[in-house]
Amino acid sequence: xxxxxxxxxxxxxxxxxxxxxxxxxxxxxxxxxxxxxxxxxxxxxxxxxxxxxxxxxxxxxxxxxxxxxxxxxxxxxxxxxxxxxxxxxxxxxxxxxxxxxxxxxxxxxxxxxxxxxxxxxxxxxxxxxxxxxxxxxxxxxxxxxxxxxxxxxxxxxxxxxxxxxxxxxxxxxxxxxxxxxxxxxxxxxxxxxxxxxxxxxxxxxxxxxxxxxxxxxxxxxxxxxxxxxxxxxxxxxxxxxxxxxxxxxxxxxxxxxxxxxxxxxxxxxxxxxxxxxx
Length: 278
Description:
- Helix content is 45%, strand content 23%.
- It contains eleven helices and 13 strands.
- The strands form three sheets. It has a six-stranded mixed beta sheet, sandwiched between helices. Strands 2-1-6-7 form a four-stranded parallel beta sheet, sandwiched between helices. A three-stranded antiparallel beta sheet has the order 4-3-5, with helices on one face.
- Helix 3 packs across helix 4 and helix 5 packs antiparallel against helix 6.
- The longest helix is centred in the middle third of the chain and has 16 residues, at 118-133.
- It is globular.
C-alpha cells in the first residue's frame, strides 16, 4: 500500500523515507524565488527569512501532476493508494489529488481529506503507517482516519500579531498596539479552517488559555498528545514539559512546524493536539 501526504504535515524527507511514505510538496515562494523545505534545518532557515522579509511568502497547492506520477507508479505495481492531504478548508490540495485520480483512471485510490494540518495531519499519517504495518486493509485504515479526524483537536498560541497584519487579517495600528500590550491570539483548527478562539496577555496567559481548552474536553488517554512549535524549540519544550507534568500525560511527542502554516502564524508559536473520547 502506498501512503501519500503533503508537506503541510511538516514530515521531513528523511522521516518520510523511514515511514515508507511518499511526499508531495506545497510551494513556498518568497520575493527572490521558491523556498525548498525538506529538512528540519530548513524550518529554522524559513523563519529567519520570514522575519527579514517585508512581504509574506506565497504558498500554493501542488499540481495534479505530482499526484499523478505517484498514482501511475502504484498502478503499475497494482498497489492500493491512500492519500492524506492538508485540510480542504486551507488549500486546494485535496482537489488536486482528486483530479489526478480521475485522470489516472485507477480505482484503487482512497483520498481522505484530513481536515487537519501540521501535528494533527502528521498524527493521522502516523496512524495510517502503523495500521499498514499491522496488516490492516486500506478500507480499515480509511474508516479509522474518518473517525479520528473528527475527534482530534489542535490549538495554538501566536507570539505576535505582525503576521496577521502582513496577511491583511488585521489593521496595522491594531497589530502595533497588540504587540505593545503583548496580546497573544489563541487559534484552533475547527471545521477545516483556522479560527480565533480568544486573546491572552503575555506568554503565560497564552499557556493558561491552551490549558483551559485542553481541560474543556474529555481526552482519550489511549491516544498520544502532540506538541508543536515554530522556530523557538526551547519555548516549545518548556510548554510541553509543563503540560506533561500538570496533567500526568504518558504518551507525547513534540515536532517543529514549518513554513506552510508558519507563514501565517509566524515564529515562537506553540501548539498542542489531542484526541477527544468517542
